[in-house]
Amino acid sequence: QKEVEQDPGPLSVPEGAIVSLNCTYSNSAFQYFMWYRQYSRKGPELLMYTYSSGNKEDGRFTAQVDKSSKYISLFIRDSQPSDSATYLCAMSVEEQAGTALIFGKGTTLSVSS
Amino acid sequence: ETGVTQSPTHLIKTRGQQVTLRCSSQSGHNTVSWYQQALGQGPQFIFQYYREEENGRGNFPPRFSGLQFPNYSSELNVNALELDDSALYLCRAGDEQYFGPGTRLTVT
């Protein structure tokens, strides 16, 4: 079993839809959780960074962490064609500089206009 | 704009050759880490350097090596290239959760 599991999709939705992206993990030591967006042939771009369980909202994006279930989610409201990208979840045991991030495989999202 | 730059943007090498990739950041960071992202996969941690010393390594063979310089720039060196080394190589500087744009390496 991989440490971080993420359904690769692809996921196709119409513009304006609510998108739900999810990851599960097996290592209960993970404390820090991130979501990255990656456009084709580009480096990952940090979207959300959370520490504790619960919800964190930033504009159209909401990150949710459930440590008891080892499950994290990213919700995108009012999805736009510009949201079409690969979304990667990542997590780490510590926050300190250089701590290795463990990534999921990424979910490819396509939003059609 | 993350302030992390990588060079070259892309390059093509032949199996068995050696390659050096570079990373620098606008502001100095004690720590730099490198990741390999194969096509269709998430990034995989290669190693990290803190104050010019390697202090963490993922599941990569010794032919993957690195350097960190006093100006906090860094190099990733890969010897005896294999076809499976074809990937996007990403650099992450300091305690930021940000990555550089990556170097795309193709091994033929």
Low-confidence stretches of chain B: none
User: What's the rounded overall pLDDT mean of chain A?
Assistant: 92
Strand order of the largest sheet of chain B: 2-10-9-4-5-6
Q: Give the number of DSSP strands of chain B.
A: 10
Q: Which class of secondary structure composition applies to the elements of chain B?
A: mainly beta
* SSE run of chain B: EEEEEEEEEE
N-to-C order of helices and strands of chain A: EEEEEEEEEEE
Task: List the total number of helices of chain A.
Answer: 0
Unreliable stretches of chain A: none
What is the radius of gyration of chain B? 13 Å
Distance between the ends of chain B: 32 Å
The percent of residues in helical segments of chain A reads under 10%
**Quaternary state, please?**
heterodimer
What's the pLDDT, averaged over the residues of chain B?
91
Which descriptors apply to this entry?
A: 113 residues, mainly beta, 6-stranded mixed β-sheet, 11 strands, globular, B: 108 residues
Short description:
The complex is a heterodimer of chains A (113) and B (108). By secondary structure, chain A is mainly beta. Chain A contains no helices and eleven strands.
Can you describe what's shown?
The complex is a heterodimer of chains A (113) and B (108). Chain A has no helices and eleven strands. By secondary structure, chain A is mainly β. The mean pLDDT of chain A is 92. Helix content of chain B is 0%, strand content 52%. Chain B has strands spanning 4-7, 10-13, 19-25, 31-37, 44-50, 53-57, 64-68, 74-78, 87-93, 103-107. The radius of gyration of chain B is 13 Å and the shape is globular. The model of chain B has no long low-confidence stretch (mean pLDDT 91).
Q: How are the secondary structure elements laid out?
A:
The complex is a heterodimer of chains A (113) and B (108).
Chain A: E1 4-5, E2 11-14, E3 19-25, E4 32-38, E5 45-50, E6 54-58, E7 61-66, E8 71-76, E9 85-92, E10 102-103, E11 107-112
Parallel strand pairs in A: 2-11
Antiparallel strand pairs in A: 1-3, 3-8, 4-5, 4-9, 6-7, 7-8, 9-10, 9-11
Chain B: E1 4-7, E2 10-13, E3 19-25, E4 31-37, E5 44-50, E6 53-57, E7 64-68, E8 74-78, E9 87-93, E10 103-107
Parallel strand pairs in B: 2-10
Antiparallel strand pairs in B: 1-3, 3-8, 4-5, 4-9, 5-6, 7-8, 9-10
